[in-house]
Amino acid sequence: MAEAILEVRDLHKHYPLTQGILFKKQVGAVKAVDGVDFDLHQGETLGIVGESGCGKSTVAKMLVNLERPTSGSIRYKGDDITKLSPRALKAVRRNIQMVFQDPYTSLNPRMTVGDIIGEPYEIHPEVAPKGDRRRKVQDLLDVVGLNPEYINRYPHQFSGGQRQRIGIARGLALQPEIIVADEPVSALDVSVQAQVVNLLENLQTEFSLSYVFIAHDLSIVRHISDRVGVMYLGRIVEIGTDAQIYDHPTHPYTQALLSAVPVPDPEARAHRERIILTGDVPSPANIPSGCRFRTRCWKAQERCALEVPLLAVPAVYRLTDSPAKHDSACHFAEEKHVVPTEEDTGNGGEGPGGNGGNGGNGGNGAAGAEANGGAGPKPL
């Protein structure tokens, strides 16, 4: 595995709650992020998923220093960016750029596309001399699939997908090594989402980028990510490769999330187990003791209220080669198949005859064709 280009350790962001008008007194804190740890390796995409309010966007803002962490460290190539001087931080920011969630409000309506994409060059003039900036902006428009002649247009003259492409071009302007994408496709139509995700993948290959990709849509995250971290109430509760998280989840919250993903195949839908969580998400201003997921978890026991589970490989898998051998913050972590595989549903069976033509819903090989009324070709 490539070296870690970004290391996040014990990251916290607490917003104080105060009382009083003239003499304000802190009476508590909203723990938006409460102890996050992860590494981002050169050239990889780390996906971060979780329900609204779990702290994903706050983590993204801290990575680019738009929010100052309450405590913890963010190391870029060994340097803790939370402790850098303004001059040193300016140099680091050139290498860590952000693509924002809303393509409608993240672009200044009074500036032309050329001014928006070229604005980073005003802050870092060493990247592009003044006489060369217009050509560089047009090159960036071409890279993200927009006509370079659009350089003098305003944001309102573009669709949502085109605006997001402009935001991506702005993020690429300074030739960064890391791009933090905070739900970059959530405000777009499904067909446009696919175009933007494919564009991000192509740009990653072309420019050797590393992504922190934040989203709600689990299918999109799986499509683009090498590793996935699942957040709940300010902490990462499970992290691993995309195959480990989606096919071999061990944390109850991850399993509940995956069980909520729509399945287009009616046969698979009939075989899968739907996990319904009860109760509401606790307030980040009043986090439960011990495991923060215990108030909604069907596995909760007395130990869960007393001990905070560590984000580590479950003891039952430590000495095995199981794909479930990845970090999970649960006292009773165990693998659970939430979405059925092809073997479970009888689709795509093995042996002569394959799937019996139309999916083999009644069984494998020749039996699949018979179960579908003989619709499929006969096996050789």
TrEMBL record:
InterPro entries recorded: AAA+_ATPase, ABC_transp_ATP-bind, ABC_transporter-like_ATP-bd, ABC_transporter-like_CS, Oligopep_ABC_C, P-loop_NTPase
Chain intervals with Gly residues compositional bias: 346-380
Chain segments carrying region Disordered: 337-380
Domain ABC transporter per the UniProt entry, residue ranges: 6-258
Residues making up the signal peptide according to the UniProt record: none
UniProt KW keywords: ATP-binding, Nucleotide-binding, Transport
GO MF annotation terms: ATP binding
Family membership: Belongs to the ABC transporter superfamily.
Listed PANTHER family: D,D-DIPEPTIDE TRANSPORT ATP-BINDING PROTEIN DDPF-RELATED, TRANSPORT ATP-BINDING PROTEIN
NCBIfam families assigned: oligo_HPY, PRK11308.1
Protein name according to UniProt: Dipeptide ABC transporter ATP-binding protein
